[in-house]
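Notebook, p. 212. Picked up where the previous page left off. The plan for this session was modest: take the two constructs that came back from the sequencing core last week, fold each one, and keep the raw output in the notebook itself so nobody has to go hunting through shared drives later. Recording the first one now, exactly as returned: residue sequence, then the C-alpha coordinate string.
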Amino acid sequence: MSSPNNRKLARIRSELRVRLMTQCTDGTGDILLQLLHAANLAPGNSNELHNEYERWRLRFEMLAQ
Protein backbone atom coordinates (compact mmCIF):
# COMPACT_ATOMS: atom_id res chain seq x y z
CA MET A 1 0.00 0.00 0.00
CA SER A 2 1.13 3.50 -0.71
CA SER A 3 1.72 6.12 1.92
CA PRO A 4 -1.47 8.10 1.11
CA ASN A 5 -3.49 4.89 1.43
CA ASN A 6 -1.84 4.12 4.75
CA ARG A 7 -2.69 7.61 6.01
CA LYS A 8 -6.27 7.21 4.84
CA LEU A 9 -6.57 3.87 6.65
CA ALA A 10 -5.07 5.41 9.78
CA ARG A 11 -7.67 8.22 9.67
CA ILE A 12 -10.50 5.71 9.15
CA ARG A 13 -9.31 3.54 12.05
CA SER A 14 -8.87 6.56 14.30
CA GLU A 15 -12.37 7.82 13.54
CA LEU A 16 -13.86 4.38 14.16
CA ARG A 17 -12.04 4.09 17.51
CA VAL A 18 -13.30 7.51 18.62
CA ARG A 19 -16.86 6.66 17.63
CA LEU A 20 -16.68 3.32 19.41
CA MET A 21 -15.29 4.84 22.61
CA THR A 22 -17.89 7.63 22.59
CA GLN A 23 -20.62 5.21 21.50
CA CYS A 24 -21.50 7.54 18.63
CA THR A 25 -22.90 5.56 15.73
CA ASP A 26 -24.14 8.48 13.61
CA GLY A 27 -22.41 8.42 10.23
CA THR A 28 -20.45 5.31 11.04
CA GLY A 29 -21.87 3.50 8.02
CA ASP A 30 -20.15 5.99 5.71
CA ILE A 31 -16.81 5.46 7.43
CA LEU A 32 -17.22 1.69 7.27
CA LEU A 33 -17.93 1.99 3.55
CA GLN A 34 -14.64 3.90 3.16
CA LEU A 35 -12.86 0.99 4.84
CA LEU A 36 -14.63 -1.52 2.62
CA HIS A 37 -13.72 0.53 -0.45
CA ALA A 38 -10.07 0.58 0.66
CA ALA A 39 -10.21 -3.19 1.12
CA ASN A 40 -11.58 -3.63 -2.38
CA LEU A 41 -8.75 -1.51 -3.84
CA ALA A 42 -5.97 -3.32 -1.96
CA PRO A 43 -5.63 -6.77 -3.51
CA GLY A 44 -2.56 -7.66 -1.42
CA ASN A 45 -4.29 -6.87 1.86
CA SER A 46 -7.86 -7.44 0.80
CA ASN A 47 -8.56 -10.44 3.05
CA GLU A 48 -7.04 -8.73 6.06
CA LEU A 49 -8.89 -5.48 5.40
CA HIS A 50 -12.18 -7.25 4.68
CA ASN A 51 -11.83 -9.07 8.00
CA GLU A 52 -11.09 -5.77 9.74
CA TYR A 53 -14.17 -4.25 8.11
CA GLU A 54 -16.30 -7.13 9.40
CA ARG A 55 -14.92 -6.75 12.93
CA TRP A 56 -15.70 -3.03 12.99
CA ARG A 57 -19.13 -3.59 11.44
CA LEU A 58 -20.02 -6.15 14.09
CA ARG A 59 -18.84 -3.88 16.92
CA PHE A 60 -21.07 -1.07 15.76
CA GLU A 61 -23.94 -3.41 15.07
CA MET A 62 -23.76 -4.68 18.66
CA LEU A 63 -23.45 -1.10 19.95
CA ALA A 64 -26.60 -0.07 18.09
CA GLN A 65 -28.69 -2.82 19.69
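Okay, moving on. Second construct, recorded in the same format:
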Amino acid sequence: MAFDVNRWMKYARARIDSSVGEGNRSLDRLEAEREADVADKPWLRSETDAPTLDEARARIEWEAERQRQAPTPPSSAPAEPTVEPTAEQAATRLELEARQRESADRLDRIRKELGIAEPTDPAKPPPSDPA
Protein backbone atom coordinates (compact mmCIF):
# COMPACT_ATOMS: atom_id res chain seq x y z
CA MET A 1 0.00 0.00 0.00
CA ALA A 2 1.59 3.22 -1.13
CA PHE A 3 1.61 6.32 1.04
CA ASP A 4 -0.55 8.90 -0.75
CA VAL A 5 0.58 12.32 0.52
CA ASN A 6 -1.77 14.14 -1.82
CA ARG A 7 -4.75 12.32 -0.34
CA TRP A 8 -3.71 13.25 3.22
CA MET A 9 -3.14 16.86 2.20
CA LYS A 10 -6.65 17.04 0.75
CA TYR A 11 -8.03 15.53 3.97
CA ALA A 12 -6.14 18.01 6.17
CA ARG A 13 -7.22 20.93 3.97
CA ALA A 14 -10.87 19.79 4.17
CA ARG A 15 -10.66 19.55 7.98
CA ILE A 16 -9.10 23.02 8.24
CA ASP A 17 -11.66 24.51 5.85
CA SER A 18 -14.45 22.92 7.88
CA SER A 19 -13.09 24.30 11.16
CA VAL A 20 -12.52 27.78 9.76
CA GLY A 21 -15.96 27.78 8.16
CA GLU A 22 -17.57 26.75 11.43
CA GLY A 23 -15.67 29.49 13.26
CA ASN A 24 -16.76 32.06 10.69
CA ARG A 25 -20.40 30.99 10.97
CA SER A 26 -20.20 31.21 14.76
CA LEU A 27 -18.64 34.66 14.55
CA ASP A 28 -21.30 35.83 12.07
CA ARG A 29 -24.04 34.55 14.39
CA LEU A 30 -22.51 36.35 17.39
CA GLU A 31 -22.14 39.58 15.40
CA ALA A 32 -25.80 39.35 14.31
CA GLU A 33 -26.88 38.83 17.93
CA ARG A 34 -24.80 41.82 19.00
CA GLU A 35 -26.34 43.98 16.27
CA ALA A 36 -29.82 42.94 17.38
CA ASP A 37 -28.95 43.81 20.99
CA VAL A 38 -27.63 47.28 20.15
CA ALA A 39 -30.24 48.14 17.51
CA ASP A 40 -32.29 50.24 19.94
CA LYS A 41 -29.41 51.07 22.32
CA PRO A 42 -27.15 53.67 20.70
CA TRP A 43 -25.12 54.09 23.90
CA LEU A 44 -23.70 50.60 23.37
CA ARG A 45 -22.31 51.58 19.98
CA SER A 46 -20.46 54.58 21.37
CA GLU A 47 -16.69 54.43 21.19
CA THR A 48 -16.10 57.58 23.25
CA ASP A 49 -15.27 57.69 26.95
CA ALA A 50 -18.27 59.83 27.87
CA PRO A 51 -21.77 59.42 26.43
CA THR A 52 -23.26 62.16 24.33
CA LEU A 53 -26.42 63.95 25.42
CA ASP A 54 -28.48 61.99 22.89
CA GLU A 55 -27.02 58.68 24.07
CA ALA A 56 -27.72 59.53 27.70
CA ARG A 57 -31.28 60.60 26.86
CA ALA A 58 -31.87 57.38 24.88
CA ARG A 59 -30.56 55.25 27.73
CA ILE A 60 -32.72 57.03 30.31
CA GLU A 61 -35.81 56.62 28.13
CA TRP A 62 -35.01 52.95 27.51
CA GLU A 63 -34.51 52.29 31.24
CA ALA A 64 -37.74 54.12 32.13
CA GLU A 65 -39.67 52.08 29.57
CA ARG A 66 -38.14 48.86 30.86
CA GLN A 67 -39.17 49.73 34.42
CA ARG A 68 -42.70 50.61 33.32
CA GLN A 69 -43.04 47.22 31.66
CA ALA A 70 -41.68 45.32 34.65
CA PRO A 71 -44.37 43.46 36.59
CA THR A 72 -45.34 45.02 39.92
CA PRO A 73 -45.33 42.94 43.10
CA PRO A 74 -48.80 41.74 44.18
CA SER A 75 -48.77 43.57 47.52
CA SER A 76 -48.32 47.31 47.77
CA ALA A 77 -46.23 47.08 50.97
CA PRO A 78 -42.59 46.24 50.46
CA ALA A 79 -41.84 42.70 51.47
CA GLU A 80 -39.48 42.43 54.40
CA PRO A 81 -37.09 39.55 54.12
CA THR A 82 -37.55 36.96 56.81
CA VAL A 83 -34.47 35.12 57.87
CA GLU A 84 -35.55 32.20 59.97
CA PRO A 85 -33.29 29.19 60.18
CA THR A 86 -34.75 26.01 58.86
CA ALA A 87 -34.95 22.92 61.05
CA GLU A 88 -31.98 21.46 59.21
CA GLN A 89 -29.90 24.60 59.81
CA ALA A 90 -30.83 24.65 63.50
CA ALA A 91 -29.93 20.97 63.89
CA THR A 92 -26.62 21.56 62.13
CA ARG A 93 -25.86 24.51 64.40
CA LEU A 94 -26.65 22.44 67.52
CA GLU A 95 -24.45 19.59 66.27
CA LEU A 96 -21.60 22.01 65.57
CA GLU A 97 -21.87 23.51 69.06
CA ALA A 98 -21.85 20.03 70.62
CA ARG A 99 -18.75 19.08 68.63
CA GLN A 100 -17.01 22.29 69.73
CA ARG A 101 -17.76 21.51 73.39
CA GLU A 102 -16.50 17.93 72.99
CA SER A 103 -13.36 19.21 71.27
CA ALA A 104 -12.67 21.72 74.06
CA ASP A 105 -13.19 19.00 76.71
CA ARG A 106 -10.89 16.61 74.87
CA LEU A 107 -8.23 19.33 74.57
CA ASP A 108 -8.47 20.05 78.32
CA ARG A 109 -8.03 16.32 79.12
CA ILE A 110 -4.98 16.11 76.84
CA ARG A 111 -3.43 19.19 78.48
CA LYS A 112 -3.97 17.69 81.96
CA GLU A 113 -2.40 14.38 80.91
CA LEU A 114 0.64 16.13 79.51
CA GLY A 115 0.90 18.61 82.36
CA ILE A 116 0.61 21.60 80.05
CA ALA A 117 -0.97 24.76 81.39
CA GLU A 118 -3.76 26.34 79.41
CA PRO A 119 -2.42 29.15 77.22
CA THR A 120 -3.31 32.61 78.43
CA ASP A 121 -5.30 34.89 76.23
CA PRO A 122 -3.97 38.47 76.36
CA ALA A 123 -7.55 39.76 76.21
CA LYS A 124 -8.50 37.80 79.37
CA PRO A 125 -7.16 38.70 82.78
CA PRO A 126 -5.17 35.92 84.51
CA PRO A 127 -7.18 33.75 86.91
CA SER A 128 -6.99 34.89 90.50
CA ASP A 129 -5.39 32.55 93.05
CA PRO A 130 -7.96 31.43 95.67
CA ALA A 131 -5.15 30.77 98.21
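Notes on construct two before I forget. The chain has four helices and no strands.
Flagging for discussion at group meeting.
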